[in-house]
Design goal:
The chain is α/β, with parallel strands linked by helices. It has nine helices and 16 strands. It has one domain: TIM Barrel. The strands form six sheets. Strands 2, 5, 6, 9, 10 and 16 form a six-stranded parallel β-sheet that branches. A two-stranded antiparallel ribbon has the order 1-15. The protein is globular, with a radius of gyration of 21 Å. The structure holds zinc ion. Zinc ion (ZN) binds next to strand 6.
């Protein structure tokens, strides 16, 4: 018995390691080539958890995505037909969920001067964009109000994010899973969150019209999309796009078929960039163009 116990112990995997990134579910083969990856991070910290990535990991992901020919898009680009994306780049959206303090943290020098923690998410992204201005202009922060967004100085940080060219999305008032509340109650999560944004951002709240569902899903067959589409805030649609976390790459053409409330996202605590690059439906890199009349590489294919 003791021997068996010792044998079992010796085969017990070491716990506390980083999540195994290259063994996420096998990507589904897809018959379309117009997939747009939307990736999501939560905490950016050295303290490992199921929802964290280290600052070094975020830096290397940005570099790997840039090297692979990606260009950062924002939710507005999906409605503009990706017009900003250069012909030789493929689109990707980077999102950060919840509004953790390690996404945007201020530190103080010994003489009391405030500066941005160089290891927080927004500082890492901004430093990379400064060195690689052709990577695009911003990322998305989905904020929930179940805690103080970014820990302290929320109003200043939210306004600074918009000044920097980043995009703010709604991640609800209380962070309740949208599969656990009936669609008739969605407004209790979406509208009070918009009121909270409005108290910090005033008129700038008009640009906050996309939602990442807490829990990463909305139910099927209960008219959830119709409820979201009908919701208004100050005379404008409260929600024009909704983001899941489902480990899939959604098709650009599907976005225009009324699926704007089910935009797929990939949790980067589970997937690595090399894994993502093996996805079968990310806009296919064609061979180099031999003439100006050849098909453009990496452009969306609008029909399935
Ligand atoms: Zn969340």
């Amino acid at each position: 018995m003791i021997m068996l116990f010792l044998v079992l112990i010796s085969f017990t995997p070491v716990i506390g390691n980083a999540p195994e990134l290259d063994h996420g579910p096998v990507p589904e083969p897809a018959d379309y080539a117009s997939g747009i990856p939307v990736i999501t991070y939560h905490q950016i910290t050295l303290h490992r958890s199921a929802y964290s990535a280290t600052p070094a990991r975020l830096r290397s992901d940005l570099q790997d995505l840039y090297d692979a020919g990606f260009f950062l898009i924002l939710p507005t680009d999906l409605e503009d037909g990706l017009g900003r994306v250069p012909f030789d780049r493929r689109p990707i959206m980077i999102t950060f969920d919840d509004g953790w303090e390690d996404n945007f943290r201020f530190l103080q020098t010994t003489d009391g001067e405030q500066y941005t923690d160089p290891d927080c998410a927004v500082a890492i992204v901004n430093a990379f964009l400064e060195e690689h201005p052709d990577f695009g202009s911003g990322v998305v922060f989905f904020i929930s109000w179940d805690k103080v967004p970014f820990g302290v100085q929320t109003e200043e940080k939210l306004n600074l994010l918009l000044d920097m060219g980043h995009f703010i999305g709604n991640h609800s008032a209380d962070h309740l899973a949208f599969t656990r509340i009936p669609p008739s109650k969605y407004w209790e999560q979406i509208i009070p969150a918009l009121n909270s944004f409005h108290r910090r951002l005033g008129l700038r709240t008009s640009g906050i019209n996309v939602v990442a569902y807490p829990g990463g899903q909305i139910p099927h067959g209960v008219n959830a999309e119709a409820v979201l589409a009908s919701m208004e805030y100050n005379g404008r649609p409260a929600v024009t796009q909704g983001y899941l976390v489902d480990g899939a790459v959604g098709s650009f053409s599907k976005f225009y078929d009324g699926n704007e409330f089910r935009i797929s996202r990939i949790d980067m605590a589970i997937y690595s960039v090399p894994r993502l690059l093996n996805w079968s439906n990310i806009m296919i890199e064609s061979n180099a163009r031999t003439s100006l009349h050849d098909d453009l590489p990496w452009r969306p294919i609008l029909s399935d």
